[in-house]
Amino acid sequence: MLIGRLPATSVSEAEALVSKIITYEITPVVGDWNKNVLFFSDNNDDYNSFAELTDSLIVNYLSDDFHLTNIDLNNYDDPATAKQDVLDAINRGCLIANYFGRGGIEFLAKERMLANTDVATLTNGIKQPFFVMLSCLNGFFHHAQTPECLAETLVKSNSNGARACFSPSGFAIPGVLSSMAEKLYDTAFQMNVSELGTLTFQSRLGGIGAGAPFYDHIEFFNLFGDPASHLRMGANAISVNLQIKVDYRIVGVDFFDGDPLMNTSDVLINIAAPGVIIDPSCIQLTLNKRPVSSTQFVLTPSNDDPAYQYQIKFPLQTLRAGKYSLQIVVINPLSQVQRTTKQFQFTLYSTLALDQVLNYPNPTPGSTTFTYFVISNTIVNVSLKIYTIAGRLINQINGLPGAIGYNQYRWDGLDGDLDELANGVYFYKLIAKSGSESNEVVQRLIIMR
Question: Is the predicted pLDDT of residue 209 greater than 90, yes or no?
Answer without folding.
Answer: no
